[in-house]
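Anyone opening a protein record will find just a pair of labelled lines. With that in mind, the following record should read easily:
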Amino acid sequence: MSAPPLSRRHRIRRAALTIALTTCLGAALANCSEAEPAAGQSAASPAADARLARLAQQAADTGSLGVIVRVDSGDGKPVEIAKQAAWTKGDHRLAAGDRFRVGSNTKTVTATLVLQQVAEKRIGLDDTVEKWLPGLVKGGEHITVRMLLNHTSGLGDFLLTPRFLPSLTGQEQRTWTPQELLAITPEQDPPTEPGKTYSYSNANYEALGLILEKATGSSLAELIEQKITRPLGMKDSFLATDAAWPAGKRHATGYEPDAKRLKALLSGTVDLPEDVGFAGPERPGDNVDTAAIDPSWSWAAGGMVSTAQDWQRFLTALMSGRLLPEAQMKQMRTTVDAPEEGGGYGLGLIKVDTPCGTVWGHTGGLPGYSSEIYTDATGTRSVTVFTMTNFGIKEKKAATTNKALVEAATCQMLGKPQPSDSPTG
């Protein structure tokens, strides 16, 4: 399979594919409006829950295909919603507790593990990559651990390289090591001096995973289990090592547009050849079932599987100070300018300032799976929106209804009035 031309500037490429695989939510949240509630109606009420459920079904029916929404306002039983397009029920009946590929939300776990090691004086934020991974990363003598964490390293991304694209789409069955992915990671286009500019790259977190393993003598999967999932009781969360889903456990089925739809969707930004599309069984509406595409390449950058409840448990513990000392929590929340994320990027943590309030967390995307998971500043309130497609919600109508759903869920989480439940566009 040939790859699309890669000569356009980095910001153009990222808008087309890399953003689609990391699911930037910031722009949607930044536009969240604060409509006044109807007389006698609070931001969290049966009527508000019903409106959120209607928005979820509307999003599912107009391109999101399936959505899981979980809103925990910190003052009672969480709201849990699972809605899907009618035809997808033949593949899987979606439930709020289904396992889901959370993609780049994994970066927050990886960053937490690194900062735990910083607190124990095993890793220094100003340590160079060359110190830990000699000869593995070009220019590593000028790149620090902090730069990897906040994406100011100057490294490009391997996602769009001709050698990796067939694996990304599932057309090639290959197991990649982090070392191999770092070897094919290009420079940013145009080249950027380390420490100067934010530019999102999965390569940063592949390197961080290797540094963690070298500093601790444990595998990344062992560290996640020992330090995060087991202590927090996250029984449905793990680091994927292949495409398999555990037998006997429910999981969401993900979908993407077929090759023809994908080419049209990205037309004018990236000129995809006719044969570039996702591997998987054909489904109605020119969709492809992508649930069997191997995500293990994403590893420390995006390889975790979880549930809405489990991941909210993690973010709540993190933001409330249970996982990191105060000094490291302060470092994690120290952000660099990241306009494309709708605010700032800290150390594995995104800050988005919305008219409904400030939220913290991350977003994630893999073929067939898009996730947005946030808390308030204290970790008391949290919100999750899982979507059963990633590229599919880049189409105009799907983007509009999905944005309306995310806005409403976020505002409800923060105890603010929901925006209108009648998106247009």
Notes: The radius of gyration is 20 Å.
